[in-house]
Amino acid sequence: MRPERATKRPSGESAGKPARRSAKQSAVKATAATVAAAKATVKASAKSSATTKPTTKPESRLAMVRRARKINRELAELYPYAHPELDFRNPFELLVATVLSAQTTDLRVNQTTPALFAAYPTPEDMAAAVPEEMEELIRPTGFFRAKTKSLIGLSVALRDNFGGEVPGRLADLVTLPGVGRKTANVVLGNAFGVPGITVDTHFGRLVRRWKWTEQEDPEKVEAEIATIFPKSEWTMLSHRVVFHGRRICHARKPACGACPIAPLCPAYGEGETDPEKARKLLKYEMGGQPGQRLSPPADYPGKPAPALGAG
């Protein structure tokens, strides 16, 4: 009896399974190596990032001051006619108009004060006013009861303590009801020629955008900006910055694409950068519209504002 022959397997079958296992193991090893290499790369990158210094150096104090002064020079060329946008003929009218301007526009104040000053042309007249009658006259400016109380109070103080004259010193002005540093600086700078920085909402917003200061408190803003510019520039600087804030560098949507000082502005790009779209955002004379004063200075290039009820 012949022994049985071993069954012959098809060619390659005996080596096929081990070969497939070997290939699979190689693939797994290759994948593991790739993952390990990737992890090592990420780890090295993270370590490198943690130790690498930023390529952009922080702006030095000297560089900031130079940039700030250049912005002021550019604004002086852009707004050679910058001025207080409240109508007034004497220090008393400017003081009253500035108190009324809180929480409203200069335009609305200018539309309201003609009738107010016709009724109460002097501090003595205003000190003797019937509150309810004054309230009706200044109602369009808002907060008319509180403002009436302040106006009568400051008029009484002017009559009794200062001979019916508006004082020309900061220390005296801030003793008047409703008068703080902002109002005092407006009066000093524009009625008495005493340099002062007026920190209103526009001024504060822009100087922070321009990285001149990080302060929020108006008095601290005033103190820091005063160290950047010579005293002789303070009043006109205030006008130029406020003009720019009202016309181009708006709070919600700055017209970055139409801004002449864009190359100097660290906040460029917060607003509309397309030139055509940005031009449509311009206001007042920059946008071909009336300004805020009913009686603007002779060199003002825009149109006078309409009287109350005229449009």
Topology:
Elements: H1 13-51, H2 61-78, H3 91-100, H4 106-119, H5 123-127, H6 131-138, H7 144-161, H8 170-173, H9 181-191, H10 201-209, H11 218-226, H12 234-247, H13 275-279
Helix pairs in contact: 3-9, 6-7, 10-12
Concise summary:
The protein has 311 residues and is mainly alpha-helical.
3D architecture notes:
With 311 residues, the chain is mostly helical. It is built from 13 helices and no strands. 32% of the residues are buried. Residues 1-54 have low confidence and may be disordered.
What proportion of the residues is helical, as a percent range?
40-55%
Rg result: 35 Å
Overall shape: it is globular
The first-to-last residue Cα distance is 127 Å
Q: What structural class results from the helix and strand content?
A: mainly alpha
H/E element sequence:
HHHHHHHHHHHHH
Q: Which range does the strand content fall in?
A: under 5%
Q: Helix count, per DSSP?
A: 13
Described by strand count, sense and barrel closure, the largest sheet is: none
Low-confidence stretches: 1-54
Q: Give the overall average pLDDT.
A: 87
The total beta strand count reads 0
Q: Could you name the key traits of this structure?
A:
13 helices; mainly alpha; 311 residues; disordered N terminus
